[in-house]
Amino acid sequence: MAAAESDREVPSALCTEFLNFSVKDTASKWLQVTDLYKEVYHHLARYVPKIYCLGPNLNPQSEDLLAQMLLQAPLEWYLCGEDPSTGLAKLEQNNQPSQLCGHVFKVGEPTYSCRECAADPTCVLCMQCFLGSVHKEHRYRMTTSGGGGFCDCGDTEAWKKGPYCQKHEPNISDSCQEDPLAHLSTDMIARCYNVFSVVLKYAVDMLTWDKEDELPPGLEPPDRSDTYYCMLFNDEVHTYEQVIYTLQKAVNCTQKEAVSFATTVDRDGRKSVRFGDFAFCELAKSVIVRNTSRQSKPLRVQVMHSSVVAHQCFALKALHWLGHVIGYSDALRRILCQVGLERGPEGENSSLVDTLMLCDSKMWKGARNVYHQLFMSSLLMDLKYKKLFAIQFAKNYERLQSDYVKDDHDREFSVTDLSVQMFTVPSLARMLITEENLMTTIIRTFVDHLRHRDLQGRFQFERYTAQQAFKFRRVQSLIGDLKYVLISRPTEWSDQLREKFLEGLDTFLELLKCMQGMDPVVRQVGQHIEMEPEWEAAFTLQMKLTHIISMIQEWCATDERVLIEAYKKCLTALTHCHSGFADGEQPITLSMCGHSVDTIRYCVSQEKVSIHLPVSRLLAGLHVLLSKMEVAYRFPEQLPLSELSPPMLIEHPLRCLVLCAQVHAGMWRRNGFSLVNQVVHSVLWLQIYYYHNVKCRVEMFDKDLIMLQAGASMMDPNHFLMIVLSRFELYHIFSSAECRKRYNRENANKDVVQQNNTLTEEMLHLIMMVVGERFESGIGQVEGCDEIKREILHQLCIRPMAHSELVKALPENENKETGMERVIDCVASFKKPGVTGRGLYELRPECAKQFNLYFHHYSRADQSKAEEAQRKLKRQNGEDTALPPPVLPPFCPLFASLVNILQCDVLLGMLGAVLQWAVEPSAGHWSESMLQRVLHLIGMALLEEQQQLENSSEDNDVYFNFTLKMSRPGEAPSNTASVLALLENLQNAPHLEVHEDMIRWLLKTVAGIKTLRERSASTSTVTASGSRGQEETACDKDKAERKRKAEMARLRREKVMAQMSEMQRHFINENKELFQQSLEELDASTSTSLDHRYPASPDAALACVGPRRSRPREKRQVVTCILCQEEQEIRADGKAMVLAAFVQRSTVMSKNRTRPPHDPKRYDPLFMHPDLSFGTHTGSCGHIMHSHCWQRYFEAVQAKEQRRQQRLRVHTSYDVGNGEFLCPLCECLSNTVIPLLPRTMGSSSCEQPGLGQWLKTSGQQIKAMHSAHRKLQPVSTVEETVEEECPAPEVFTVDYIPTNPYSSTIKEMLTTFGSATYKVGLKVHPNEQDPRIPIMCWSSCAYTIQSIERLLVDEKKPLFGSLPCRQDDCLSSLARFGSACWTAACQPTVQGHFIRLLAALIPDPQVEASPCILDVDMLHLLVSVVLSYGSVHSQDSSGLSVDAVQLHLFHLITVAHMVQILLTSGPEEVTMEQESGEAERGEEEGACRLYNTLRTLVGSSLPEVGSGWHLWRCVKTGILPYLRGAALFFHHLHGVPAPPELHALCPGQWEVLCGYLSLPSNLLQLFHGQQELLEPLLHGWCTHPGIQQTLQGGGVLVSFPRESNSLIDLPDDYSALINQASSFTCPKSGGDKSRAPTLCLVCGSMLCSQSYCCQTELEGEDVGACTAHTFACGAGVGIFLRVRESQVLFLAGKTKGCFYAPPYLDDYGETDQGLRRGNPLHLCHERYRKIQKLWRQHSITEEIGHAQEANQTLVGIDWQHL
Ligand SMILES: [Zn+2]
Ligand SMILES: [Zn+2]
Ligand SMILES: [Zn+2]
Ligand SMILES: [Zn+2]
Ligand SMILES: [Zn+2]
Ligand SMILES: [Zn+2]
Ligand SMILES: [Zn+2]
């Protein structure tokens, strides 16, 4: 390395040469020469190695500077022929920019597309263009760019409407066709041409150069040094960790350096990792190769001569330069395009552009990126050259794709990725198809890459190796290209286009033929298949091709001639596939009901069958088009209709449908299993699932059904049905009664019976679909949108659905549109969401009658859900529950004969058979759903007849006569009853009650049809229906009555059930409430501690502090343990009762987020700073237990956890090791318990000293304690008595040890909660001896009170009576705990705290370093000093009243707070002086007087304020939060009920509050009333050095009142956030885009989350940026918005986290987590407020706990790495 170091000196040695360099002279010399190429190369050969790559560490800034001076400047001068600064400016001025925006997208930048106007989804706008376009009022889609690609604004082919934004709107005056070169002089053009040729040639030479130690001719350096680089290249095989580890070994670097190397390699594609002589670099290379070659192919490393690297560096720079220069003028851009595409000496495909493309896969990532960028800004921006480039691209297409398939870089780094920029332009795509035969090329290239075929030439994916599978994935991008080419359909066809399209179709049919019948299966009967069969590849291929097949049909639909030719070709292909259709299969004859048909013997359950039939399905699609475009009727002679063999057409689709039925019947379970999403499925079941799934069904299931319809429409319906029966293997069951009987005797096996029942059901369903599915236009006479309407309707019949759910249930076209928006309002109404949940569409009631229970796209589960829902609806409307088939639209003529299936003999025979079985159950096996289907079919037939009758003018038009057929009895010999007779028979069958309504509906319809026929033909004979009719009505009446009663009973039952399930669902919540209710009742009856009602004696004003304090009635307090359910009285000497509690650190109220976290070991928490930067919050769910019950519970949890961790190594949502547990009742996260204590007794007959008296006494007491404590320090014996020199008041005994009033269990719990608060609050290990324990408890009490006070203000709730019980209980127990916690600590320690606290108010010479009053939060001081006084008072036997002392302390602190407020009150605001009432005069005057006193003490630091009104207002508003906090504190400490006025938000609160606190409402009287006593104190406060320092800006100055903190403001439009995040770069890796930009909602910082680069070490662990940030910003708790994902992230500590719904909703009231749908999102203020409330009430951790309990997968996430 030493040698390398000295090399850095070289540039300065060359300085003189550089200084003497003249740009102008060089350029002039070049202008003279004839061979510019040679001159420039010579120049570069000389200078490039002197500028670039001179040492191990590159120095890009100085390199770039030198390159600009020595290399680029002469080029620019030459180009302009003058000083470039003027020349380039002139060019820019004369430039007429094109209308294209062409903004190239950065990673993560928002892009917009219009669902209504974009030609295809790849057409996008940048944010600026979008905002200035018409589309922002349309239905637009928003996504984040993956980088690359550019804005299509201005491209008229990309947009059906509004192609320009305001900025890019063309000027009508300038013609677009004008040649940009027209403005340039010929000289200029020539120079420009020359210089571009040389520079581009140089760049291409260098970037495609593959020799490591030599340079191209003309570039050899004049003096060659002996320096090399060891260059490491990127690959996608090795992981980051492998590379880092290897580098540390090979080049001896630190981990940090290795990480940086690896990051650069990943980003740029290569990085030099060592510099030195050849051997030195070669050594590193061999180590790297050796270390990485074990498992896979080694990392690519090259030892390259430094001059080669230098030239490559400059080559990249040169490309950048070209991109920069052409930005000045469209003319320069055109010249560069010309230079690039100019054919080279090697003939075809030898231009510089070709050379680059063809070497693409050999270049490193960085080089590719740079030249792709240049292509985008040059070739693709010039419309003329875009076309030429597209042609070259198409010519090289096959080679480029093959290179890409072999290359291991992602597609975004391949030149093939540019296809989207050209193929999606309709005119270019059309041109490439006709001139370059692109469609055929793409398909052929694709087919060539799928090599594995079986004997019949079909694809075979079974034996794919991992590498082939990888290749298969890459080849799929070709399908994407094909999609681009086909995405816009031609409006006009030329003969050439027809020819090339049909040629493409031929190739495509070749591809489909390889798929027809691929992956065939044979049913396994004996053993299971053990191995998991490969089936996904075949399905992937099918899925990818789905849209292509649809688009080809759409192309065909735009031209009759093309359609006819395509139909012929497809039929030929199909015939070819099945040329051996009947070979080797035995012919058989089937006969039934007097009909017979010849077919073959084939069993799906025994022979090969395939689910892949794309050729058949394409033909089916084209067949429908023949009908839709009426080609079939207009040009029948041109169609090969006579060649069609209907049995052949239906054979394979029918087999496939039978396969589905058999899979449903459970016959294919032995064909292996597959694991999908952790669930085991039968492999065939999965394939059938996809076959019906919305992603595939359009070109699979739907088309098979159509093919069946097409075939059946050309066949005798009886024949069709017999073949169907035969393929379902049910022929023997239906052919005759004898057959069935014989069969039943032989097959008593229950499984077989069950299977046959299912198959029969499926077959009946299939017949319904063949006759009933008429909603595709071309099959039935419907409009285009009827189909989608019907889909939506049937989805909504299941239940109301959100927009996104509906979208998922509907097939999307190639533009990812469903067409739903056009029709949704016809069938549904929209219901907006509340604060949770999402907006829902509900079915319009009038649409329910179109419901078809046997809708072909329902799964069995959908069907039963829909049935239940629709029956329920009918019951609610008081209708009968029959679900008859809906009225259907008529068929198109080509399919019209299908209705005859409904009245053919075989069907009637089948219907009769099933009804017969139902009449006499002994006759055979049948099922209810079989019967239900039969009834449905009869209904369909009746409706068909009714429709035809209603629509016909003359009777003889109606050939359809089902009613006639159904009343005809079966033929001899069986002589079965007619279908009608059977129905009538079944009507009263008791075992068929469920179908009663349906049968009644059928009979009614029959009667209706008879009337219709009678009306039209009065000759028809009427049977004895009249008399029967009467019978029926009598019978009906009776029945109806019985039914009504049954219905009533059922409704009652249902209601009870509903209540019960509701109760179960909310069991916990209910319990919680019940429990709290009972507690409240208990309180109300037994005590007044929590009584919010009026006091017993209404005239006595209530006071919560001081000698006049109201005494609550002494009553017992009894609570119930949630664990053992025993009642327990709360007594000091009783069993301890505890509240589950959660203590956490908090910064929610912080006014200073820049304060660094305290050092836990040395931090003295005695005084809280008014900025409240870190606090300790205690919350509770309010659930009470015996301490011993809780301990037993916690031990059990601990033991369970230990076992679980050993066994499963899983984690829970709570950390037992840290004392965490879930409340046994409500599962709320807790980490300690607070003991419940009885309220403190006020001593009634005590001495009540005045302020002066008390100051004196307390001074004496403190002195006594000082000396006692001094004694204690050296000799720690308790026997020491009071020393004489200490003039202690006689009644104050320092050595008096008061008896501890508490039982042992309570003492234990006092310690438990104290040390938990200490441990969590300070983040230290527990230490029961630490003197800070009581301080932390008092502080947590004060902080919790403050946070609740803020919350009440923010929520606009009254101070009392609006808190949930759990918070009331929590505050009471906290306050009482605080007053008792000194008993668990060392008494002198607590007394010491009291002394120091008091010294902040009353100067005490023996206490050092008392804080200045501006550095003290007064509520914290009040709480601490009041609570610590207990330790002093216990040694006072003089009868001094605690109440009196508390009141003095309170007054004193209140005065101090007023002083604090006045000192920090800002300058007077310029407002109108308010007219103040007489009553306030005193206050204003007092405030002025106090302020002026302060000014005399403090001096000029205080501004002069003349307005007493202003000062008094400052005091009043500033002190209010403190007074409210004090009221909460004393209320909960003493249990004095609050006055009713404070239970409401009524005016006059101030006076009542002051009264409750025993304060004068003119607070200034506190000071002025005791002025002579207080003035010395005031003097002491104001002369504290801290005052001056703080006021002059030396510290954090907090002014009062402190506003509540809010989460940051968010923009209304989500895209503003995306935009903000896209310009955010990682702060650590120099300008790189962050992959997961994450916004802290507390402080607004943007972080680079979930990334290596920004990990930091926190407490010895590597953590991600978010976790690290929470420790400073949120004391461990964080609320973030993951901008790319549109997801809120909650974090707590290192192990807890969850995702939460973002506050952004689309117009359908849904969030879009992951930004998958791309609908515009807007801020929902309600939801954001809800998140803010969770934060303000410290519930984030609790929320995480609940989320993790509900979803265990959240527990496994490495939250600390986010
Ligand atoms: Zn744009
Ligand atoms: Zn624009
Ligand atoms: Zn639009
Ligand atoms: Zn208990
Ligand atoms: Zn609980
Ligand atoms: Zn933050
Ligand atoms: Zn980063």
Please characterize this protein's 3D structure.
This protein is of the alpha+beta class and 1762 residues long. The chain is 51% helix and 7% strand. The chain has 63 helices and 27 strands. Strands 20-19-23-24-25 form a 5-stranded antiparallel sheet. Strands 4-3-5 form a 3-stranded antiparallel sheet. The chain has a 3-stranded antiparallel sheet with strand order 15-14-18. A hairpin with a 3-residue loop joins strand 24 and strand 25. Helix 4 packs across helix 8. The longest helix is centred in the middle third of the chain and has 41 residues. The two termini are 38 Å apart. The N terminus is likely disordered. It binds zinc ion (ZN) (7 copies).
Secondary-structure topology with pairs:
Layout: H1 2-7, H2 10-19, H3 23-32, H4 36-51, H5 60-80, H6 84-94, E1 107-114, H7 127-131, E2 140-146, H8 186-207, E3 228-233, H9 240-251, H10 255-268, E4 270-276, H11 278-292, E5 301-305, H12 306-326, H13 330-341, H14 352-358, H15 365-377, H16 383-395, H17 397-406, H18 419-423, H19 426-436, H20 438-449, H21 466-475, H22 477-486, H23 495-515, H24 536-556, H25 560-577, E6 587-592, E7 595-600, H26 614-628, H27 631-634, H28 646-664, E8 673-676, E9 679-682, H29 683-692, H30 701-713, H31 717-727, H32 731-734, H33 737-746, H34 750-772, H35 786-798, H36 803-809, H37 820-827, E10 828-831, E11 840-843, H38 860-876, H39 905-919, H40 928-951, H41 962-966, H42 979-987, H43 996-1016, H44 1025-1065, H45 1067-1086, E12 1118-1120, E13 1127-1129, E14 1137-1146, E15 1175-1186, H46 1187-1208, E16 1221-1222, E17 1229-1230, E18 1232-1235, H47 1251-1272, H48 1304-1322, H49 1332-1354, H50 1365-1380, H51 1387-1399, H52 1418-1433, H53 1442-1464, H54 1478-1498, H55 1508-1534, H56 1549-1556, H57 1564-1568, H58 1571-1582, H59 1585-1594, H60 1614-1622, E19 1637-1640, E20 1646-1648, ...
Antiparallel strand pairs: 1-2, 3-4, 3-5, 6-7, 8-9, 10-11, 12-13, 14-15, 14-18, 16-17, 19-20, 19-23, 21-22, 23-24, 24-25, 26-27
One zinc ion binds at residues 101, 103, 125-126, 128-129, 151, 153.
